[in-house]
Amino acid sequence: MIQINRLEQDLGHPMLERAERGRAMKPTPFRTRVAAAIRKSVPVVECEQNARQSTSPGR
To answer: CA end-to-end span of the chain, whole Å?
Structure first.
């Protein structure tokens, strides 16, 4: 939970709707938007990393 708290503090928005003990937490709409943005950008980052690896010396 410490990492989530730190992320929430850095981003300035809650990522989870906290529930009472024993009940499931739910993602906030902000967390849903952040996750969607990350999913869109990850393939681009992976593609760039693969391109760098294939052009590095010794490959």
So the answer is: 41
pTM for this predicted structure: 0.61
Domain of residue 31: give its range: 2-55
Q: What is the pLDDT of residues 29-44, one digit of tens each?
A: 999 999 898 888 777 6
Which residues, listed in sequence order, are joined to residue 17 by a DSSP beta bridge?
26
DSSP of 2-46? HHHHHHHHHHTS-SEE---TTS--EE-HHHHHHHHHHHHHHHHHH
pLDDT value at residue 41: 79
Largest CA distance in the chain: 55
Size (the chain), residues: 59
Indicate the number of domains in the chain: 1
